[in-house]
Amino acid sequence: MSRFIHRRTVLRGAGVAIALPWLEAMTPRLARGNAPKAGPLRLAFLYVPNGMHMPHWTPSKEGQDFDLKPTLEPVAKHKDRLTLLSGLTLDGARAHNDGGGDHARSAAAFLTGAHPKKTDGADIHNGISIDQAIAQAVGHETRFPSLELGLEGSSQAGSCDSGYSCAYSSNLAWRNATSPLAKEMDPSAVFDRLFGSGDDKEDKKTSEVRKSRRKSVLDFALGEAKTLHQELGNADRRKLDEYLYAVREIENRLVKSEKLQIGENGVPNYPRPAGVPRELDEHAKLMLDMLTLALQTDSTRIATFMFANEGNNRGYPEIGAPEGHHDLSHHGGSEEKQAKVAKINRYYTERLAYFLDSMASIHEGERTLLDNSLIVYGSGISDGDRHNHDELPILLAGRGGGRFKSGRHVRFPAETPMCNLYVWMLRQFGVKADSFGDSKGVLDV
Amino acid sequence: MVKSGLRQFLLTCLVVQAGSSVFSADPQSLQKQLDSRIKPLLKEHCTGCHGGAEPDAGVSLEHFDTPKSFLKGNKLWMKAIQKIELGEMPPKDSPEMPEADRKALTQWIRSTIEDFQCGLTPNPGQVTLRRLNASEYRNTVRDLVGVDYKPAENFPADDVGYGFDNIGDVLTLPPLLMEKYLLAAEDISRKAILTPPADKKFEASYAGSQLQVEGGQSQGQSSLTLASSANATFKEQVPWAGAYQLTVRASGDQAGKEPCKMQILVDNKPFREVAVPNERDKPKDFTFPLRLKPGSRQIAIRFTNDYYVEKKGDQPQQDRNLIIHSVSLEGTRENKQSIDPAKWTASHRSIFSVMPKEEKDPAKCTKVVVERLASRAFRRPVEPDELKRLVDLALQVQDDGASMEESIQVVLQSLLISPKFLFRVEPPQGDLANGQPAENFRNLDDFELATRLSYFLWSSMPDDRLLAAAWTKKLRSSDRLEEEVKRMMADPKANEFVDNFAGQWLTLRKLENFNPDPKLFPKWNDEIKRLVYLETMNFFRAAVREDWSVLQLLDADFTYLNEKLANFYGIPNVRGNKFVKVSLAGTQRGGLLTHASVLAVTSNPTRTSPVKRGKWILDNLLATPPPPAPPGVPELKEKEQLSGTLRQKMEQHRADPACASCHKLMDPLGFALENFDAVGLWRTADGGQKIDASGELPDGSRVDGSGQLRQALLSKNKDQFVRCLTEKMLTYALGRGLEYYDKCAVDKIVEQMRKNDYKFSTLLLEVVKSDPFQKKGEREIE
Question: What sign results for the dihedral spanned by CA atoms B752, B754, B758, B759?
Answer without folding.
Answer: negative
